[in-house]
Amino acid sequence: MSSIPAEPASDGRLDPKARAAARLAAVQALYQMDVAATPLDDVIEEFVEHRLGQDIEGVGIVEADAAHFEDIVRGVVREQRELDKQVNGALAKGWSLSRIDSTLRAILRCGTYEIRRCKDIPVKVVINEYVDVGHAFFEGDEPGVVNAVLDRLGQEIRPEKRKGAGAGDDAAGRS
Predict the structure, then answer these.
(1) C-alpha angle 79/156/139, rounded to 5°?
(2) For residue 150, which of 29, 111, 123, 125 is within the disulfide window of CB 3.0 to 4.6 Å?
(3) What is the pLDDT of residues 65-105, one digit of tens each?
(4) Which residues are CB-neighbours of 146 under 8 A, at least 6 positions away?
C-alpha cells in the first residue's frame, strides 16, 4: 500500500498530526541511513511504501505527510554539511555532533533543516515538535538538548520571526 500526502485541514493547512508523523519517520529514516548505510532512494521508498501510516504490532499509526517526510529526508542529506556546521556551533562548548547519539544527531539535523527551509512553520512549532520526537526516543536530558540547540539556531537563522512573535506563534497552532 502506498501512502499519500495528508489532506489539508479545514483551514487549508496540512494536518498537523500528519506532519508530526512525517517528522518522526524522517528521524527514523535518517537513523537507518546512518547505521545501516541504506541508500537515500531506498530508504524513502521503503518508508513511503511500507511504513508511513502502517499499523505497528496492531497499533494504528497516524498517516504521515509523505511529501513533508521526503522533503525533510532529502533536504537533510542535500544540506548535511551546512546543517552540521550550524548544529556544531550551537552545541555546548566541548561537544560536537560526532560525539552524540545518531538518533539525537538525526533529530537536530531535521529540526535545523525545517528552521532553515520551512518558513511557513513557526520556529516555536518546529522546536516543540522535535522536542516531542526527542521524548519518543529518550528519557534523559536529550529532549532538553534538542530544545536548547534548536532554540539557539532559531534565533540565529530566523531572528525576524522570533522577536515578539510569541503570541503569533501560539495563534498559528502546530503545523
Answers:
(1) 75
(2) 111
(3) 999 999 999 999 999 999 999 999 999 888 888 889 999 99
(4) 104, 107, 108, 111, 127, 130, 131, 133, 134
Domain boundaries, the chain: 2-6+14-78, 92-165
Distance, CA of 124 to CA of 139 (rounded, Å): 22
Residue for grid cell 532538553 = 144
What confidence tens digit (pLDDT) does each residue in 148-172 have? 999 999 999 998 644 444 434 433 4
Looking at residue 50, its pLDDT comes to 82
Nearest-angstrom CA–CA distance, 97 and 91: 8
What is the C-alpha to C-alpha distance for residues 118 and 108, in angstroms, rounded to an integer? 15
92-165 folds as: N-utilizing Substance Protein B Homolog; Chain A (1.10.940)
